[in-house]
Design brief:
The structure is a single chain. By secondary structure, the protein is an alpha/beta fold. Helices cover 32% and strands 20% of the residues. The protein is globular, with a radius of gyration of 20 Å.
Length: 267
């Protein structure tokens, strides 16, 4: 009876796996950065903090983290279409999930530096896997391809969804890029992601590309389709899913599908 009571007492004070995870992340982040909040993101523990002037957050899995601490990174629009990106399924299966809000920089040179520094912090201070799984929706595709081509050693795979890859035909605000438009048009600019397909392919980074055939926000002909053709021509590993009459939205897959998770986990 005494042994049973002792066992019960020990179980009552042992933290559950996800609680221990959030405490560990909170403690590690707080050593170097100001904690802004600790809350829930779709039911998962999240730490929000200031990373050198940029708002960032880390979500912890609801179970014991996977060996090696693999993680997903939504590079832009991290709160959009979340149930359709398989991020929640991966959090339930032991992956961490992160983002950092650098949208004002539009992944210019400064944005690249901040993103690389953020990843360095996650790897060196929190023990995350050296390479990230990138989720790149719309502008996030612009961010993902530029980041992967500049820091290929930091990226394991990329899921692109209706990606913005050149400003030709795009009517939105391009931020700091506005002052850099070349005379020959955006698509002639080496820094446009559509022109970086070869670099990403050469780095052996697999890509899953989803886009809507009726997208009139980010025209597929100048963006997704040109990128895919160039990526294939360079021998890159890419799976392309053209979704008929879909427009720019919705991003992702049906909530009961695991297409993206399967892509990230495939060997």
């Amino acid at each position: 009876m005494k042994k049973m009571l002792m066992a019960a007492l020990l179980l009552s004070v042992m933290p559950v796996a996800h609680a221990a995870g959030i405490d560990e992340v909170h403690e590690a982040v707080a050593k170097d950065h100001k904690i802004l909040a600790v809350d829930k993101f779709y039911g998962f523990d999240r730490v929000i903090f200031d990373f050198n002037g940029y708002k960032a957050w880390i979500c912890c899995p609801s179970c014991e983290p996977r060996k090696g601490k693999p993680w997903t990174w939504t590079m832009q629009w991290a709160t959009a279409y979340v149930p359709r990106t398989n991020v929640l399924q991966m959090l339930r299966d032991g992956y961490h999930h992160v983002t950092i809000k650098t949208f004002a920089r539009k992944m210019d040179e400064n944005g690249l530096e901040v993103s690389a520094e953020f990843q360095r912090f996650l790897v060196e201070k929190l023990g995350f896997a050296p390479k990230a799984y990138l989720v790149g929706m719309s502008w996030g595709g612009f961010f993902s391809v530029r980041y992967a081509s500049t820091c290929p050693e930091n990226v394991a795979k990329i899921y692109l969804d209706a990606p913005l890859l050149t400003f030709d035909g795009f009517k939105g605000d391009v931020g700091p890029w506005a002052a850099m438009k070349p005379e020959g048009g955006w698509s002639a600019m080496p820094e446009m992601p559509v022109n970086m397909a070869g670099k990403v392919a050469a780095a052996k980074i697999p890509v899953l590309l989803l886009y809507g055939g009726a997208d009139n926000v980010v025209p597929p002909a100048a963006n997704a389709e040109t990128f895919a053709a160039r990526f294939k021509a360079e021998g890159g590993d890419i799976k392309v899913v053209k979704r008929g009459m879909y427009g720019h939205h919705p991003h992702g897959v049906e909530v009961d599908e695991t297409t993206i998770k399967e892509f990230f986990e495939a060997k």
